[in-house]
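User: I've been going back and forth on whether these two constructs are worth ordering. Before I decide, could you fold them both?

Assistant: Sure. I'll take them in the order you sent them. The first construct and its structure tokens:
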Amino acid sequence: MGKVRLVTDSTADIPEEVCLALGIEVVPLKVHFGTDTYRDGVTLRAEQFYELLSKSPVIPTTSQPSPVDFLEIYKKLLIEPDVQIISIHLSSALSGTYQSAVLAKSLLNDSADITTIDSKSASYGMGGWVVAAAEAAKQGKSKEECLALIQRFSEQSQLYFLVDTLEFMQKGGRIGKAAALIGSLLKIKPILSIDKDGEAYSVEKVRGQNAAVLRIIELFKQKEIAVHEVRVMIAHSNVLEMAERFGLLMQENFKIHSLSYTVLGPVIGTHVGPGTVAVIMQPV
């Protein structure tokens, strides 16, 4: 049985210390502020990004890694004998990152044992799967067992998120300008999620942030997974206080096996803006 290694990209928003502890390799996407280009999580950390965002006259843009970026990581891992790679990436409906990983794999010898996965999710929605699979691999689980775990997580996990302003999603082409303007004027807070095709969509529109927060709790209660013990991960873009409020509500309403927090990195932050909170519920 070969040694299983996990590869993902920077949009998984996994804390650096977790990646180091579990040997997770991360391929960074890029963030562009005008003519300045940064590597997500490498030359631009989350805290630096939000500070820069608050001062910048332009909204940044992002770009995917090249196949060469993936090729370098795959080759580094494959130096070890009997390595088996599971490479999980941002939804192909949101980025070409997954396609770059697939192309990189095609450039290697057929003997290279690499399974590429389109998560059809984003941020810790997929980051949680990567961490769980890396933990299983560290415990000596086989590649097949790790893939079965990822499949179970993909089928059972639930994710909802709130944005503070619709401006960033409008600029990124996720919603229309008129909808963004009306939503802002009426203080409408769309509860968002990611569908089975990996696209962001509006679940419900609620008036006011407090009502939206409470409605997300009710939506989680309707899910089959909610009657069991669950892992909860809360990702936020520079609003820890709001994230912790969500954490308390989740603890009051569900059987929590573990609760963790992470910061939305520069690439995801570019598309949702500051003040966003995403709550992810996953099986144990």
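The second construct, handled the same way:
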Amino acid sequence: MIGFRNVSKNRAGSRVRRLAGAGMVVPLAVSALLAGGAGTSAASPGNGPTAVVSMGDSYISGEGGRWKGNSLTNSGSRTGTDRAWVSGSSYDPSKVYGATANGCDRSDSAEVRSAGPIADVAVNLACSGAVTDNVFRASNGGVAFKGEAPQADQLAGVAATNNVKVIALSVGGNDLGFADIIQECAYDFVLWGSYCYDDQQAVVTQKMDGVMAKVGTSVDEIRAVMRGAGYADSAYRIVLQSYPSPIPRGAENRYTQSDWSRLNTGGCPFWNKDSDWARDSLVPQIADRLKAVASAKGAQFLDLRDMMQGREVCAKASKQVTTAAPASAKTSEWARWIDSSQTQGPIQEDMHPNYFGQLAVGRCLSLIYAQPATGGFGCRNTAGSDQSGMYLAPAN
């Protein structure tokens, strides 16, 4: 492998303090009826306002939706990328994430908000940092998080006051320890000059069966709540989705691994071998197992493994935002970088789909909802297009 750069560990360590919080294991919190109102008490299955509901973790709650691409500019609007900018050096994240500052980070561009008019009401119960235990009902071992009841218990109230048509679920990544994986791989690049894929694969392998069993229980819990509210299984659909990779393969990275550009400029401090493992092994492993859970539990599967192909952080096919290259879903990156400068927003946004990525996933949800409620599909982007270029293909 390429030799480790000649820098002190103290200097390198100061650059990676952000890395400890990167990934999906970030705070959860409050629930919300986010669009179209809260329904009516007279609603019931087949009556009242229709609703689309999202449940699970940060990849569906809207974490990272503050950002329209990534820019090296650290002041003002960050070259137009920071949607929380007010004026001068003033920023108000509630413009994107709402007034509740509990770390759930349910953005205005989150998947259920970006899916368009597929229902009268969009309800985002997902929370940044959620694990499967935060989805289960309290009566079945569910755990409250950030001041909120377990998500399945919240779903019961939504199902009673709306006519729920689709429930999108993204969960399991935090149970597998994505944040720890990202942190260890970044540390291996910045500090140790070693690879992470071998020892981290062992960790994932050890956890995988147990995590997938709990994902299956999450689906069971949703079914139980909906049956308790009077819904037949055929009256709505559960869409279980996988995760996209926020980083590209090594050969598709526009920055060399032999200097500090991946950390200081690109915000993607990972070796080629580790990048290849994440993109072509880890993400597909998780997707394949989630597909099996969906099939076993009668849920529809939305495969997002290739959703950000060419749009990842540091991908050759995309650009950082500059005055010469304005923020655009057609050219900018669709995932939030690791901000080694520590001057742009909170750590928990790192390595999540950004505003553009969330618009794209919302389009994926609308596309699969237009299909019969059986089987699975992969959602992919069209090079050089915005979210309108998303399309479905048979799931891998």
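Notes on the second construct follow. The longest strand covers residues 163-170. Residues 1-41 have pLDDT under 50 and may be disordered.
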